[in-house]
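User: Some background: our group keeps a shared notebook of sequences we're curious about, and every so often someone picks one and asks for a predicted structure to add to the entry. Today it's my turn. The entry only has the sequence so far, pasted here. Could you supply the structure so I can complete it?
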Amino acid sequence: MKKYNLSKIMKRAWELVKKAGMTISSGLKKAWEEAKTMKEKFQKSAKILKPGYDETCCSDSAYLYFSLWQKYGKSRIYINDYKRRALAFIDKETKQITEYDLQGVSRKEYETVVKDFLEKYEF
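Assistant: Of course. Here's the predicted structure to add to the notebook entry:
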């Protein structure tokens, strides 16, 4: 379950009440909506479950892994399978995806997981 910073939500609601002239009820609704749609900041690594799998019963092969690489003035996020084989990378500056061989991962699973990653994280 995702945890929210309730203090920030309440402060944002009061800010909306004072500056935008909203009621406290509408300010709270707006503050909660903003908190729920806010993207997480991508740090160093992440793993995202492939579609059709359940978190409780799956092994490492049910995930795709995302890891940050920075060298030679370049910054990339590599997409790996459970054996840590590179499937693709995302250039952080241009947000362009360069694919390698998908190596046993179906195109549909790959595209769904990458879409989920881009929706969930900000980098």
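Suggested note for the entry: The beta strands are 40-41, 45-49, 63-71, 74-80, 86-91, 97-99, 121-122. Residues 41-122 form one domain.
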